[in-house]
Amino acid sequence: MTGDFPSGSTIYFAEWIPVSLTYNYQTTIMFSTVLFSGLSIIGAIIYFIRYKYKKQLNIITSADQAREILKSDQYVRHISNAWLINTLSIVNPFTIHDKSLLKTFKNRVILILANWYKEDKYEELVFVIGKRIDYHIPLLQLNNRKLCLSKLVKQVTLDSFLTGVLNVNANDDLLTELPDLIIHLWKNRDDKKAQTRLKELFVNNNDQFTQSEIWQQIQTILSNHSSAISNMGINDFDEKISNPLNIIVPGWETMWRVVFYSLLELLRHPKLLEELSLQLNDQSTSSQNCLLLECIIKETLRLYPPTKNIYRTHIETGEEVRIDIQHIHHNKSAWGSDACTFRPDRFQEKLTDEQQKHYLPFSISCPARHKFAYIFAGAIITELIKYCPTFTIAEESMLPSTDKLLDVTRNSYNDLLILV
Ligand code: HEM
Ligand SMILES: *[C@@H]1O[C@H](CO)[C@@H](O)[C@H](O)[C@H]1NC(C)=O
Ligand SMILES: *[C@@H]1O[C@H](CO)[C@@H](O)[C@H](O)[C@H]1NC(C)=O
């Protein structure tokens, strides 16, 4: 090393420095040491300041810690969800920090969903869903009885939610474009063209939504909290209050994923599909009471939770956390060595305390968690299987073998074709 710098050599620090500096060997060492220490100290100071003031992101993989954070008033979600206000114009309990809004909104949703628990109402829901499937399949069908499964699931789930739950008959533009627009904006939050198109779709369906009593009730709740919304410095808040995405996003974005991944697993497990079809065709049990179907949905929610991560920010320290729900769901000490295998049977028996603790697909408070999610997803899966007697993957499409988990990144299996 030292041999490279004979004493008295001229070091050009940069060609544009007009003076050449002459040093002997010792000065070089001293100068380097001082320079090095100086830079190190400055570096350490910068690092310390950034560490102190930068938002930290803590990843939570322990179920106990996750539950504590989800229960705590100190950890809020509106800060990490703030992008939803500008991108999707959402002003609901996910983006607005207000206790009264959360309580009233949630209670209303609980009442709306409870409407479907009675047997005769359930039959009505199944009927509505069946009609929506009947409508979409011919529109999506390619030649040779093939169709794109992800399009079918997204559109049927959205249409069933709008028709069945909100009582809104949206036009075809909205039903076919909205799903992929929302998914696109999730990834490309600043795409102004997509944002404009999204607004346009709702303007074009304004009359249909205005006629929905249920949507009007939700809108009234949001209007009643307009001061909380305007206090957060949100512009055009009146317009945002009348945005149906305030209810569509919580109700549909998660639901289509569980329907889609349940069907993908059934396509990979033909024996299971056959057994399920057999049970569903048995007139003595309604699909509302089909235990196998419920287990399939629960196992899908465990392996592929639609809300893979839940984000929270500490209201005082600004500390950010990402609760890794999927990691918690795959914990081997709770679920056993086959934790990453699709095995709906595990829900046939009562879960252990550890397993219950390690199961958080609905966080701790989603109003659909007790019953509605299973009824609604179950009804869609049942009707899709009934309407597609040869429900199989088309020969040109592929799924990973059953010893591997399905891919959960957005747009996975977007092009998968099935035979109907
Ligand atoms: C399979 C279906 C569903 C899944 C997996 C799911 C999942 C979740 C999760 C993880 C949360 C917590 C989010 C957070 O705290 O950041 C949540 C909250 C919520 N969900 Fe769901 N959800 C589903 C269906 C629905 C449906 C159908 C509706 C209503 C139409 C709905 C309405 C809500 C509401 C209002 C909240 C806020 C509740 C609160 O914070 O206390 N969800 N859901
Ligand atoms: C909205 O506020 C009005 C006046 O305070 C009240 O009468 C009404 O019940 C509220 N509506 C809802 C849906 O909370
Ligand atoms: C699984 O859960 C146990 C008990 O909560 C915990 O000690 C362990 O670290 C978890 N394993 C992983 C891989 O996170």
Automatic annotation (TrEMBL):
InterPro entries xrefs: Cyt_P450 (IPR001128), Cyt_P450_sf (IPR036396), Cytochrome_P450_Monooxygen (IPR050665)
Keywords: Heme, Iron, Membrane, Metal-binding, Oxidoreductase, Transmembrane, Transmembrane helix
Stretches that traverse the bilayer: 29-49
Keyword Heme set for record: yes
Molecular function GO terms recorded: heme binding; iron ion binding; monooxygenase activity; oxidoreductase activity, acting on paired donors, with incorporation or reduction of molecular oxygen
Presence of keyword Oxidoreductase: yes
CC annotations in GO: membrane
Compartment(s): Membrane
Pfam short name (any one): p450
Organism domain of life: Eukaryota
Gene3D superfamilies the UniProt entry points to: Cytochrome P450 (1.10.630.10)
Subcellular location, principal: membrane
Family per similarity comment: Belongs to the cytochrome P450 family.
PANTHER family on file: CYTOCHROME P450 FAMILY MEMBER (PTHR24282), CYTOCHROME P450-RELATED (PTHR24282:SF211)
Protein name: Cytochrome P450
